[in-house]
Amino acid sequence: MPSIILTKNQKFMFWSFTAGVAIFALLARYLRRRRGPAYQGLYRKLGGKRVRGSGIRSPNGVLLSDLMSHTSARRSDSPGRRTAMYRNSAAMQLSDRISLASEYSNTPIPQGFTDSSQQNTLENMSPQQLGVMGMEALETAINFWEDALHKYTTQITNQESEHAMALLDAEDAKFCQSLQQILDIGYALQENCELLFLDQRSVLFRPESNVTNRESDIQKVSSVHTEREASNRSSVESFASAQDQVADLREFEEFNEVFPDIDKLPLYQSALKQLEETGIPYRKIRTENVRCGSDVEFLCKMHCIRLAFQYIFLDASVKYWFINNGRQILTDLLLFAERDPKDFLIAYENMFEFLSDASIWSSVEEELASRNVKAITFFDVVLDLILLDAFDDLDHPPSSVMAVIHNRWLSNGFKETALTTAVWSVLKAKRRRLKDPKGFLAHFYAISEHISPLLAWGFLGPDEDLRAMCMSFKEEINGFIIDMFSFEKCNFSSVETLSSDILALFKFKVEAISARLAPPQLNM
């Protein structure tokens, strides 16, 4: 038999091939023994989704994972043990879910929650509490479905360990696929529930609900206001009857200004009567801003102030005094910030030239009605809509704007340019949405293009002198509004006396602002 002579390269290839086949066979046998469940990839996918979904934070800072804490704890147990645990502790879990749900809506839960009182307790719960309880029940169902899929696939894996070549038949694959679809639907339902019951953008968190509650409170308080005033008078009489037991009543004279005798204020009494009979329209309740004792007091005083401003502007000379001083104050503010007031003055003059036409007032009323302005007065338009809303916006600036302002790596010039551009873009977008591009709001936005960036930079920027000036301007305006609503500073007995006091207060504040904005005089 002839001998086979191999070259060096042929020997190397032969031995490499032999070694590769041997290693491949050993590796195949090892992997076949350690093969995992058929749906292992599915669990990784679903597990990742569940971790993401359970980490959503509620508006009050509570994690949803805290609400579902017992669910994560039971995952370490076997499915059979978890089933028994849920059956034995259903009542305790329901009570826990109600307590946790109460944290979201800040609504107290009745004590003594038992099986007999369960129906009454559920009826007293808020929609958000019931929704969170439903989410907990859905979480429990999804966990059981996951356990079912896991246990079924584990059984198939055990069978395959006995028969290495066994595969899923059509019925097994269909069952696993159907159960997986149910789980996907459950996950999607969880996400929708989170948006409905836990997301701060949900209607359950809208601020309008507070307005509704305040309106109901106004109706309730106004209906019993007369009784309350009678009770106040009886309290004064009780002080007089107890004169022998207390100190000299002259020590309490200082409280007469804080708690005046309503019977001596006919204008205020007429406002109370109108509130009880027909109501007083308003755009916003600003009881706390003006430091009134109640919403009823705020609405009645606001009605009186509206009448006073209408009376004030019957005098043409006073009206022009307001216009000229408004122009001067804003011009001085621009000059203090080293801005050119030329374009502002043009826009300001265009505004009052537009308002001098009596034929446009019907369209002005329509425009302001779209902004929920209930009366065309100096208080409603200038003080409430323009100034107070502007101060509210500056107190809560967007986070994106503050991120730019607080960036240490950006120069002040770049920050100011970025802030001005942001303000202009907002005003430009608002002007595009106007129905009348040449109406009152269009002229107002033209003035705002020069004043709003200045105020934004003054309140938010790093210029300490400008910030102090803007804060002083804001404090004077807020002080004037608070004084208008004070029984101590204004006499609400008649329209004439109230208008006189308001005009005197306004002149005093204008002088204070002008003195602060005036350039320092050089000593010669």
Concise description?
This protein has helices at 8-33, 40-53, 64-67, 69-74, 79-88, 90-105, 118-124, 127-162, 170-197, 208-223, 225-241, 266-277, 295-312, 316-336, 342-355, 361-370, 378-395, 399-405, 412-432, 440-460, 464-484, 495-517.
Q: Could you please describe the fold and organization of this structure?
A:
With 524 residues, this protein is an all-alpha fold. It folds into 3 domains: 40-205, no CATH class; 208-287, no CATH class; 307-517, no CATH class. The chain is built from 22 helices and no strands. It has helices at residues 8-33, 40-53, 64-67, 69-74, 79-88, 90-105, 118-124, 127-162, 170-197, 208-223, 225-241, 266-277, 295-312, 316-336, 342-355, 361-370, 378-395, 399-405, 412-432, 440-460, 464-484, 495-517. Helix 13 (295-312) crosses helix 22 and helix 19 (412-432) packs antiparallel against helix 20 (440-460). The chain starts with 7 loop residues before the first helix and ends in a 7-residue tail after the last helix.
Secondary structure topology:
Blueprint: H1 8-33, H2 40-53, H3 64-67, H4 69-74, H5 79-88, H6 90-105, H7 118-124, H8 127-162, H9 170-197, H10 208-223, H11 225-241, H12 266-277, H13 295-312, H14 316-336, H15 342-355, H16 361-370, H17 378-395, H18 399-405, H19 412-432, H20 440-460, H21 464-484, H22 495-517
Helix pairs in contact: 2-9, 6-8, 8-9, 12-13, 13-22, 14-22, 15-20, 17-21, 19-20, 20-21, 21-22
